[in-house]
Amino acid sequence: MATGAGVRTRVRDSRSRDILAAFTRNVARSGYAGSNFSEIARELDISKGTIVHHYGTKDQLFAQMHDSYMERRLVEAHDIVARFRSPGQRLAGLLFAFLLYQEVDREATVAFQREIATLATHEALTHGRELRAEYLSVVRSVLADGMESSVFRSLDVDLQSLLIFGSSQWAWTWFQPDERLSALEAGGQLVQLVLGSLLVDRAPLDGLADPAGEVATAVAKIVTDCSRSHTDQP
Questions:
Q1: Contact 96, 168 (CB under 8 A)
Q2: What is the pLDDT of residues 118-169, one digit of tens each?
Q3: Which of 6, 69, 95, 107 is 20 to 30 A from 80 (CA-CA)?
Q4: So what's the pLDDT on residue 232?
Q5: Domain layout of the chain by residue ranges
Q6: Under 8 Å CB-to-CB from 36, ≥6 apart: which residues?
Q7: What are the pLDDT digits (tens) for 53-69?
Q8: Please, are residues 39 and 85 in contact by the beta-carbon 8 Å criterion?
Q9: Highest CATH level, class, for 58-232
Q10: What CATH number has the domain spanning 1-56?
Q11: Which DSSP helix (H) or strand (E) runs through 106?
Q12: Which of 156, 229, 220 is nearest to 186 (CA)?
């Protein structure tokens, strides 16, 4: 039988998750500047003091939102790289994931992407910037491996990675779930665009970009499983 302390801990953890989820929804809807503790308190029918008790300041809550988001993305990125052998498959997998986030982790992705400029300079996000640098290094390593093995054309790795992120980071402004294209279909188009310009031999391109193909199917499972694991945490 659960002890009183155990029950209190679960309640506290559940409340913390509820507050973080409500804050994330508010940032996705109104941006960081337009989100406040009063709105979250009203939505959850709690006091602002309860939010302060769990997170302290709005900056600390923002940092937690950012860090937990990037930690999920890093788990997925490392799983994708480990799952496939070829640089083409690995990069295609990462590109599919970029669009799947718009469906599977929609609110957190919109909250993250709409505040990308704030995230670059906010003083509370030093650790968050380290996480984003790690994620960028994963993508750059895949690009570099592809170029060194002559699978990809020899181009500027840093610039190519920034062009990839520059296109995918704005997906929140135009992608809408349940509209004309699914996330995997849109991801397939992104694979065609990026790998179509990088591959020395373009024969594998259609297979890599197939929304129902091996890469897309495996990545969908990785992203979905990670999201489910995050949701099911106590």
A1: no
A2: 777 777 778 888 999 999 999 999 999 999 999 999 999 999 999 999 888 8
A3: 107
A4: 57
A5: 1-56, 58-232
A6: 26, 58
A7: 999 999 899 989 999 99
A8: no
A9: mainly alpha
A10: 1.10.10.60
A11: helix 106-114
A12: 220
